[in-house]
Every structure is written in C-alpha cells, then in structure tokens.
Amino acid sequence: MVLPDNVGFPLFDSGTNQAILIEMHYNNPKKISGITDFSGARFHYTSTPRQYDAGIIQLGDPFLGLRGVKINDGFTQHDFTCDGKCSSTFLDEPVTVIMERLHMHKTGTRMVNEVVRGGEIVHTAKVEVFDFDQQGAFQPQQDSYQLQAGDEFRTTC
C-alpha cells in the first residue's frame, strides 16, 4: 500500500498507540516443510506529521462469523448492513476514502460494497471474480470519494 505524499498513519502519538502489528498470511495447503519465504515489509517513518491522517475502517463481517450461518455447498449470498447510526459513531466530519480493499479469505467469490446516503447509492466498489490464492485482497480502481456521518454501508458477498 502506497499512500499519497500528504497522507500518513499517525504512529507512536499516544500512550496507547505504541506498537505496530504485522500479520502475514501464508499459503502452504500441503504443509510442505523447508519452504523459505523472502517476503517482507518496508515502513517509511518521519517525525514530521503529514497534512492528513490515514485510518482504516473494516466493514461487512469483520470477524468472518457470518452471524453463525453456515456456508453451504454451492453459491450462497450473504448481506451485511451498517446503517447510518453505525457511521455516525466514528464520523463527526466528512472523510475522504482513498482506497478500498475487498477481502473474503476463501469464503467468497464475488463482493459488492455500496455507500448509501439518503436512500441513494453514492458509491459502489465490486470484484466480480475473487480468488484468494491469486490476490489475497482486491483493490478496485476508483477515484477518491467522501464518507459522511449518517452514510449507510451495504456489503454483499
């Protein structure tokens, strides 16, 4: 992930924000031993704050629990909604979304995420064919857009 030059994640800016958690997902379904991994991560840090702070919001089914509903064989549709009260709990002013990443582990093949304002869809991101083994997460090509308090989110997998 590469952010615009004037955007950054605030790090180590409070007593509760003092660590970085890195989570790696490996794909070795046959459990072959002795495989060497050469992946890595590079962080660029500056003590000069950026003009805009970045943040992350996770929508849909963030804990992959599917509300306790089992996934059947074959195609099944699951819908998740975050109503306007939801966005009002974390937004007190408009924010600019600069990227979305649609991610379903191995439980989904297609995903649509919609932002609804006043009953009208104001933004749609989708991946028509998702294959976790090929991409891990899908980043739709899109222009940035604004989220506002009271916006509703609908995610369909």
TrEMBL record:
Entry keyword annotation includes Disulfide bond: yes
Coiled-coil annotated residue ranges, if any: none
Domain (Copper type II ascorbate-dependent monooxygenase C-terminal) ranges: 52-157
SUPFAM superfamilies in the cross-refs: PHM/PNGase F
Pfam family, one: Cu2_monoox_C
Superkingdom of the organism of origin: Eukaryota
Protein name per its UniProtKB record: Copper type II ascorbate-dependent monooxygenase C-terminal domain-containing protein
Keywords: Disulfide bond
One of the record's GO molecular function terms: dopamine beta-monooxygenase activity
